[in-house]
Automatic annotation (TrEMBL):
It is a multi-pass membrane protein. Gene3D superfamilies: 1.10.287.1260, 2.30.30.60, 3.30.70.100. Residues 108-174 form the Mechanosensitive ion channel MscS domain. It is found in: Cell membrane. GO terms for molecular function: mechanosensitive monoatomic ion channel activity. InterPro entries: LSM_dom_sf (IPR010920), MS_channel_1st (IPR049142), MS_channel_C (IPR049278), MscS-like_channel (IPR052702), MscS_beta-dom_sf (IPR023408), MscS_channel_2nd (IPR006685), MscS_channel_C_sf (IPR011066), MscS_channel_TM-2 (IPR011014). GO terms for cellular component: plasma membrane. Pfam families: MS_channel_1st (PF21088), MS_channel_2nd (PF00924), MS_channel_3rd (PF21082). The keyword Transmembrane applies. This is Mechanosensitive ion channel. Keywords: Cell membrane, Membrane, Transmembrane, Transmembrane helix.
Length: 285
């Protein structure tokens, strides 16, 4: 016992009156271990699947993140206290330093505050599909400073949280389960308008990723400069991969146009040349 006491009382670091002993290191390790165990238990409890009970994954994840951050802040405070650093004195003594750091890390703090807003407000959740700066992203993780998403090219994108909270963001997941999309196409003047509309609607019907065939609608939109302009509107639940769906439908439209001798014209431009005359000015000395 005496040997153990001597080991625990052994000074690892000694700077003037400030000393860190072995038992302080043991306490720090215990705090870290207990904190990690508590966080893991809370995570298992929150994400456990109960029979007959449905939990929203996004809400549960947001609650877990908030609880995790609070627990770790408390743990860090206990660690500082265990090594003899008074938090009140530490904060008061480092006030000027914190102001300087705060100015330098203003954007970082902005992202952190935005992360807290996202996690608490729950306007954005895991698996939500967002349109940010013209890019479609499926949110996979919401962190305290940044969020991580996957775009339609399967590229992982790190998004500062302030970009989500301060910019205009379209959340496709807030809409109904199905969303309306359209495909535009132009055909040559003189084409059978009714036939074109019927082909557009039949082309969508051939693809599996549409919802409710009664809502498919072909429209004659406009008389273009080089073509008669049409569009076909349809509903789909495959929001994230809709560009692939549109590409497949365009292939079907192109095939059916070829089968029915309907031409998609090239852009045309008429050039008018105006004849003129050249005036010869004699050279003077």
């Amino acid at each position: 016992m005496d040997t153990l006491s001597k080991i625990l009382d052994f000074n690892l670091i000694s700077i003037g009156d400030y000393k860190i002993k072995v038992y302080s290191l043991v306490i720090i390790l215990l705090i870290l271990l207990i904190t990690k165990v508590i966080v893991q238990l809370i995570k298992k409890a929150l994400f456990r699947r109960y029979k007959g009970v449905h939990f929203d994954t996004g809400n549960t994840y947001a609650l877990y993140q908030i609880i995790k951050y609070v627990i770790w802040v408390i743990a860090i405070g206990l660690i500082l206290e265990s090594i003899g650093i008074q938090l009140t004195l530490f904060l008061a003594g480092s006030a000027a330093l914190l102001v300087g750091v705060g100015l330098g890390l203003q954007q970082t703090f902005n992202d952190i505050v935005s992360g807290i807003i996202l996690l608490s407000e729950k306007s954005i959740k895991i698996n939500d599909i967002l349109e940010i700066d013209g890019d479609i992203v499926e949110i996979q993780e919401i962190g305290l400073r940044t969020s991580r998403g996957l775009n339609r090219n399967d590229i992982s994108i790190i998004i500062p949280n302030s970009l989500i909270t301060t910019n205009k963001v379209i959340n496709w997941s807030h809409q109904k389960k199905k969303t309306r999309f359209k495909i535009g196409v132009g055909v040559a003047y003189g084409s059978d308008v009714d036939l074109v509309v019927r082909i557009l609607e039949e082309s969508v019907l051939e693809h599996p990723d549409f919802v409710d065939g009664k809502t498919i609608e072909g429209r004659f939109v406009n008389f273009g400069n080089s073509s008669l302009d049409f569009e076909v509107l349809f509903f789909s639940e495959n929001v994230f991969r809709i560009e692939k769906v549109k590409s497949d439908i365009r292939k079907i439209i192109n095939r059916k146009f070829s089968e029915n001798k309907i031409v998609i014209p090239f852009p045309q431009m008429d050039l008018h040349f105006k004849s003129g005359h050249t005036e010869i000015i004699p050279k003077t000395d």
